[in-house]
Amino acid sequence: MKTKEFRITQFIAHFVCILGVILVLFPFVLMIIASFTDNTWATTNGFSLFPKAWSLDAYKYIWLEKSTIGHAYLMTIIVTAVGTALSIVITTLFAYALCQDHIPAMRVFGFMLIFTMLFNGGLVATYYSYVNIFHMRNTIWALIFPGLFMGAFNVILVRNYFKSSIPPSLIEAAYLDGAGEFKTFIGVVMPLSKPIVATIGLMTGLSYWNDWQNGLYYLTPRGGSGLYTIQVVLNNINENIQLLQQNASKMAGLNISLPSTTIRMAIAFVGILPILLIYPYFQKYFIKGITLGGVKG
């Protein structure tokens, strides 16, 4: 039988959770409503959950700019897919190697991994390396490679998962059957690691999808504008709203005002929509992977 103290505790816990959900959802709801708000009303009165004037002008502008925004969307998808796939391969291979405690050199690599989490060469050295040594400016690799070597936390998660969730007896059995390291890794370890792979894949994919700094650093308007991702386009609009005014002539025949304020919210909503759609399918793996990967190995 549930006691009075238990019911009070449950009520408080549910209240805190509901309040947390409301606080998390509030910015998203406000952003969506703001994107459908009339630009003139929003400029005068600010954004509100209950605007008195509604408009689709922001989405009409997105439709008119579908060639630029559509291309940016395509680049975002390509960069996210390629970067996430490469990152998963590098992260899982590195984590599996760190699990081989019988190899003395692995401790050195483990120290180097932790060291890079605490210290780095800084922006100037990084920029100089990628631009002058690796010649990645205005190439798609400038949007992919910088993110591949920043996942030390993901490596630790995967390493802990391998150590705590994959029985050593299975790996030993694979060795006895004549399997080598790569065959054991691909045939035994990876099929049992779907939760952690989905977890780091989701976090890495979000990082690539939301990244705008690499585009800002390594892409120039003359040589790299064709590689702009949706986040770079959004950042350019936020920093220089005059870009919208320069395109106002394209809307002359539609008899609509330029949505210089609400367009930011509309593009932000368009930018995060795919993530909102796919996250529910990865949520169970994400929670399980974080829980098991966070266990000390």
Tell me what you see in this structure.
With 297 residues, this protein is mainly alpha-helical. The chain contains 15 helices and no strands. The radius of gyration is 24 Å and the shape is globular. The protein starts with a helix and ends with a helix.
Q: Beta-strand level of the residues, as a percent range?
A: under 5%
Q: Residue ranges: pLDDT <50 for 5 or more in a row?
A: 293-297
Average pLDDT works out at: 80
Per DSSP, the total helix count is 15
- What about the largest sheet? none
C-alpha Rg, in Å? 24 Å
Structural class: mainly alpha
Shape: globular
Give the H and E element order.
Answer: HHHHHHHHHHHHHHH
Overall number of strands = 0
- Percentage of helical residues? over 70%
Cα distance spanning the termini? 39 Å
